[in-house]
Amino acid sequence: MIDQAETLAWDAATGQRERLVATRRMFHRIAEPGFCEYQTAAGIVERLQTLGYDVTTGTDAMELSAAHSVPEHDTEVWFERAAARLERPELIASMRGGATGVIAQRRFGPGPTVAFRFDIDALPIQESADQLHTPAREGFRSEHDGWMHACGHDGHITLGLGVAAALDELSDHAHGTVKLVYQPAEEGTKGGAAAIAAKGHLDDVDLLIATHLGLSADRTGSVACGATFMGTFKYRATFTGMPAHVVLAPHTGRNALLAAASAALNLHAIAAHPDGWFSLNVGRMTAGTEQGVTPARAEIDFGVWYQSATAQDYLRRRCIEVVHAAGALHGVDVDLQLTGEAPYVEADPILAERLERVAQRIPDVGSTARVVICKAGEDATVMMERVRSCGGEATYVLVGSALASGHHTPTFDFDEASLPIGVAFLTATALERMGDGWTES
Amino acid sequence: MIDQAETLAWDAATGQRERLVATRRMFHRIAEPGFCEYQTAAGIVERLQTLGYDVTTGTDAMELSAAHSVPEHDTEVWFERAAARLERPELIASMRGGATGVIAQRRFGPGPTVAFRFDIDALPIQESADQLHTPAREGFRSEHDGWMHACGHDGHITLGLGVAAALDELSDHAHGTVKLVYQPAEEGTKGGAAAIAAKGHLDDVDLLIATHLGLSADRTGSVACGATFMGTFKYRATFTGMPAHVVLAPHTGRNALLAAASAALNLHAIAAHPDGWFSLNVGRMTAGTEQGVTPARAEIDFGVWYQSATAQDYLRRRCIEVVHAAGALHGVDVDLQLTGEAPYVEADPILAERLERVAQRIPDVGSTARVVICKAGEDATVMMERVRSCGGEATYVLVGSALASGHHTPTFDFDEASLPIGVAFLTATALERMGDGWTES
Amino acid sequence: MIDQAETLAWDAATGQRERLVATRRMFHRIAEPGFCEYQTAAGIVERLQTLGYDVTTGTDAMELSAAHSVPEHDTEVWFERAAARLERPELIASMRGGATGVIAQRRFGPGPTVAFRFDIDALPIQESADQLHTPAREGFRSEHDGWMHACGHDGHITLGLGVAAALDELSDHAHGTVKLVYQPAEEGTKGGAAAIAAKGHLDDVDLLIATHLGLSADRTGSVACGATFMGTFKYRATFTGMPAHVVLAPHTGRNALLAAASAALNLHAIAAHPDGWFSLNVGRMTAGTEQGVTPARAEIDFGVWYQSATAQDYLRRRCIEVVHAAGALHGVDVDLQLTGEAPYVEADPILAERLERVAQRIPDVGSTARVVICKAGEDATVMMERVRSCGGEATYVLVGSALASGHHTPTFDFDEASLPIGVAFLTATALERMGDGWTES
Amino acid sequence: MIDQAETLAWDAATGQRERLVATRRMFHRIAEPGFCEYQTAAGIVERLQTLGYDVTTGTDAMELSAAHSVPEHDTEVWFERAAARLERPELIASMRGGATGVIAQRRFGPGPTVAFRFDIDALPIQESADQLHTPAREGFRSEHDGWMHACGHDGHITLGLGVAAALDELSDHAHGTVKLVYQPAEEGTKGGAAAIAAKGHLDDVDLLIATHLGLSADRTGSVACGATFMGTFKYRATFTGMPAHVVLAPHTGRNALLAAASAALNLHAIAAHPDGWFSLNVGRMTAGTEQGVTPARAEIDFGVWYQSATAQDYLRRRCIEVVHAAGALHGVDVDLQLTGEAPYVEADPILAERLERVAQRIPDVGSTARVVICKAGEDATVMMERVRSCGGEATYVLVGSALASGHHTPTFDFDEASLPIGVAFLTATALERMGDGWTES
What we know:
4 copies of one chain form a homotetramer. The first copy, chain A, is an alpha/beta fold. Chain A is built from 13 helices and 12 strands. The first copy, chain A, has helices spanning about 5-15, 15-30, 40-50, 60, 70-85, 135, 155-170, 190-195, 255-270, 310-330, 350-360, 380-390, 420-435; strands at about 55, 100-110, 115-120, 175-185, 205-215, 220-230, 230-240, 280-290, 295-305, 335-340, 365-375, 395-400. Chain A has an 8-stranded mixed beta sheet, sandwiched between helices. Chain A is globular and about 80 Å long. Chains in contact: A-B, A-C, A-D, B-C, B-D, C-D. The interface of A and D includes residues 257, 258, 262, 268 and 375 of A. Strand 8 of chain A pairs antiparallel with strand 8 (about 280-290) of chain D, so a sheet runs across the interface.
């Protein structure tokens, strides 16, 4: 009976309480960069196979050409490192080159397909060694110098494994198929999601639930059932001109620095769009070598964050227009690379309302929100858009958690008590759709 | 005998002394803009026909499509004005539309062809009414409000008529053909010279002498026998974007003001050329209408002055590149009109030396210079380049004259005593080539 | 009984139906610019005095130094014109110099003070002569060439006179004081409102109701009871440099054009503010005279429209900073004049709800809105802010009217059937506060 | 007899032929950066002391605060390296901190003071290891990886030691005092010359002769007796703003990247100066860190090269003005450091003519030039200006030498046969002033 779904989920979640903490701490220790999460992915694969899920990895899971910024050199370095440390290095053989996504599937007879999205990458932050910082004090600080799970993705991995175990336990009550999608490289919206979506893994999904711990849900026991993220895209523009001796032959130079400077000024001068706020930033520029030589090379990194689907095409068109014309101003070649991207996707208020009713029946869920606005981009929106375009439903839920300090800081930590609550809520959302109440429509 | 040429010329010139002054004052009174010199041209034609010269006018004299900036509306207004005032309006019928150049020719038997260039246009300056200003005090101030012969072109016209009369008187001593070329629209290098050159009138010229009173030759009795002017080109760029209500639909605008502003900055930032100094100036900009509307139209006027033939192509290429790319920065259409142009043409030191010897034999010529550098553009360089490209010789001479104040000022005036000296010098330069010393080579 | 207020108001309004149309058409014919509304103001004064109101005009009504952009020359021209046409020119003697506001007051015994704001200026638009355009066809097209009531302010004047007459008729039911405030120069937020507020006329007001016909309320019979306008400010920046001959002495120039161009680019590049959307536009620029002279003078007009009180200080500080620094870039003096300004003032939802209940009881009011967002600035917000700062309440109501074409177009016209509905609604809002239900609190 | 001076000099020079080559090769091997020439200076000191010269070093030789760009960290690294390798490390104790200049003096009785300037620093160029490159083939390639004598300063050191030895040999023929000034850090005009001049060592000099091998004198046996170098100055501008999260709080950022971009554009837009050509280049820019953060730091390196003393003040004033105002545009702090500087100093044609007569009497001097124009800056002009301002004479001579490839290239090499010719010429120029022909005036 569907009325029992939340109770079943709650029991299945709380039974794993200690295991969830242990799992989280293990993954916290092996923080890895985006497209380099080899040890992490191996750990996920091992656990899911044990639970009887069909696991897809490597280029079967991802179309890497659809990603934006795979770091070729770094991914090889981290691959070697992982291969040397793993007991079963064969687990990552298929992932070489950055294909670190993992898709686990389990069929519980006829019924709808429900998918969950979890992200697995860490951040280039040196984790605090302060004894007030729990991971330091309790001995699970990152072993990878300069890299840290400072956004809670270690918790997301853990939630996914908890849901997998709970559904395994509740398999008699599940009808249909569940997909657990672990994506690399969420930070910077570098295209981990796009690479998985491009492979078609989401095209048969009836309901996609993406998840984050914390953010604006910063109390343990709170839950938000829909979230609207900003759209974003990021570019690197490279300007290639011609060097010249500025005394003997200044006229033969083609000045990449002035091209990039004009690009920066005119990008920032892009006019407002009536359908919503946006922020554009040229965040980095390097150009030239020394005073006596016309700067022959320049590079700018810029990003845009916006809050409406209609503004997106306008902003992108203008950015491309400005950068190319700025090169032409000084006879300079321009190469424009998309380095990150996630569309603006609005929350589905009807779905959110449905999930809110589920949340309200979970013990220990103290407060719920239907839809929240998040001032950030999220790679998951790529998947949400894909699912919706194929006729499915998609939402983004926040699992509330008290935070030790802000996301992306060296002392970030979340409240591990939120893990069983999150597992219960996510399991119950799956059962809301594929539980005993399900009937073929 | 050639040794007598200077004496003959001197006598022929000084005999006209009073007539030269009267002529100059008559033309001073009827100052007219470039391509609008109808009354002026009619006066020139009448006098030259009386002296027995063959006169060519209108589109027989000029290829107007080769000019840069014929002011369509103004030229019609001045045509009507002149037609209403002239006793013989039929004299200007052929000139309608701006073809106000006059070419007078006289053949004195076999021999070389010597041409003189005189310019005839006035300036948009309100002439001083101060009684210290001779034209005001002596009653020959400009009758055309807002227009004034403030650069001495009234004197140039007079020099040309004086040479015509002197050669008529000395026809027994002349061998070959003389051409007196009166060009409109020298100021701003708007293409009066180009329109005459395009018609081929200079292609058979063996020696071209262009003339100016004053400039750096600011003492009566001095003479410079060669002058190097700067090259110059001028453009008007018109940017056409799209207006938009900046609150309701700013994203639909295409901003011509920002395009023009970027053009101005990047034009000024054009890199140095090793072969010589140049100055570039965006001298005027207008854009847009009011705060609440995206500026849909902008216009800039800019010019470049340079001192080397090799720099010219570089500068022009860069200007064109910058203006078009600046439009593209904001998705704005660009129209670029050449509004003025005169090439850099170096003085011919050997010819200058020859003429210096002539000058030194003229009574009342107190000092001579061989070659001077003039920091300005000159439309005559178009003709000089044409003559040289056809195998002829060309020079630019300065007839020294004490000046009441600087060129292009409301109290500009020159010393009328310089007129007979100029006529003598110019007549003698013609005789140096086509006088009794001439023998078929 | 308060329950009857709407019926009383409705009767008093519909009784004036024909007079309202005649009044509106009379004022439509004499469209005048902001700070030049002499004939208009004289007409208002005459009618209000007839109805027994105390009328304040001229510098008793306005502190002109608090306005931003009084057009000195134009206001004198329009004064002379009006003086020549009026039967009683003494009516405008006190207004000379632009003080064309009118404040009419009537005391109906003890009670609260309720004020209404009406604007009276026209727009620089040539009114359509098309026979499909009702004012043209029915003979009340603007007699002032190039100026037109294209925003409905003629209707606002009429509403005010209708309210004055209705309250006069209902004086037995009114308790307290009513103030009818007619402000000049609303268009461009040039400071007509500020000049009246500065005089203190609003400091004792308990309830201020500002009014507009149409806008988003584009159906006759609809009413909006609160409106949030954008904040706005407008500046004219004048850059004064030094001219120079760009060939002889370019280094002595100080380039106002490049200063203004840098200002334009960097103004447009002002970073986003998290508290709300804004649009900034440099809408007009003029600079320099001709190619050969360093531009010594430049002028830009720019405006900002924003949607949050917190963004205002940030935007203003940055604008001032950019303009002054842009002058300093080229050693150019900067003069910055505020030419228009109106703060962001949010609607009062509680007051709006109260008025909505009033509106719903007016016959012929078919639909009501509580609060609408208007994407424009409004000079009335200056008055609303003043009233609130003195402890009073303020709102902005829209009187719905079918429109022939958009505001600020040559064929703009509104449905005159909206006039009695508007008079009824406004009169009823006054009675809601100062009617029979009033008791001293 | 003065007539014998050149013969004496020639004999004294050719006698050292082999020693000169060995000396040059030794110094070539130990190429060191500017202000780091410790081994080099130690070698110079040892040889000069052996020849009986009074040697001044360290802060007695240099006022380091007058230099522009002493590299604090690097100079310490090179000091340690040199100290470890030298047999007599006490020779460099006084030089620590970058004071690597050496001044050697010898008095030959009463008479004028003649000084020579030699520069001793190397360039950040990896020397070619190609066997066609003589230093590689013959085993005297630079031992300091990444640093190379690629401009011939090893030859200059050698010329100086050769002159010292020749004058020692000819001491009976010398009257007065000779000063050999060895300056560090000529490359980049970083102020080695200024630091020595500031100490007053040049204030009693009657004749200063600065020297360079090669440049436009690229044939062995040619000599140029005067050279006019360009003036130059170089700056590093550092912009310090405020970082901000560009989504959450863009308005709190102060954008150093846009400040630097505006500086770059407006520096390049500095107007022409009538007194001569110049080239300005912003050669390097770095700004910001990543897309999501307002760039809080930016740095630009720029330089100007000019050809007239009058343009210098104008250019410097405008550069300073632009950089500071560009910071103010974005509320960003600016730090402007002079990193290099050398004034424009014209050759002395009369002195050059005198030296040309000397040169023409030296055997093996095949061709002479009086004055050449060098399109580059030279630190020595600081010294020349100082000597002239104290009433002395100064010139810059080029000792011709066939070159293997261009200056500042990895295969640069000069013809060692030019060394004795140079020693002879320089010795003879000293004797021209202080030789037997000298008489107290």
